[in-house]
From TrEMBL:
Quaternary organization: The complex comprises the extracytoplasmic solute receptor protein and the two transmembrane proteins.
Gene Ontology CC: plasma membrane
InterPro entries attached to this UniProt entry: DctQ, TRAP_DctQ
GO molecular function terms attached to this record: transmembrane transporter activity
Record organism: Minwuia thermotolerans
Similarity comment: family membership: Belongs to the TRAP transporter small permease family.
Membrane topology qualifier: Multi-pass membrane protein
Keyword set, alphabetical order: Cell inner membrane, Cell membrane, Membrane, Transmembrane, Transmembrane helix, Transport
Domain named Tripartite ATP-independent periplasmic transporters DctQ component: residues: 26-157
Designated name of the protein: TRAP transporter small permease protein
Amino acid sequence: MSFIDRWLARATNLTTVIGAIAVVLMMVHITVDVVGKFILFLPVPATITLVSNYYMVVVAFLPLALAERRNSHISVEVLTEQFSPGVQRHIHGWTCLYSAVIFSLLTYRSFLDAVDKYELGSFIMEQSTKVPIWPGHFLLPLGAGLMVLMLLLRFANYLSGRPQPGGSGTVAE
């Protein structure tokens, strides 16, 4: 296992742990809000804003690279499953490069958006509470950037003939 593969494995594991913690915190936060709202008549301020701008973004975007590492993304192979294992390997390899380009564009654009939100000091007012939301905008480029690195590693492994990190799940493996 190469240094880059080990580093990416650690980074993806860390982002997954952060995602799992976010799920637990979100459940606790919403539960406390519901109990506070309907039993104590005292809701937790900014619950909707925190859930939608922080927890959900962490849960949705940080574990992207781990899903790629485990080959857990949804794929439909109606046509490609008819090809030989060698052709499938080439299609998978070049698809990694294409996907890396797309995710690079997503990373770049979302980072520019996050910087704009930071410079504006973007916030949302909820129940007379000012909640800064600009930090949450940096989570998308972080998750997408890790995905780019994972895809580039897969493409480099394809070119060199090395096994894919975490297993590629392809027939040619």
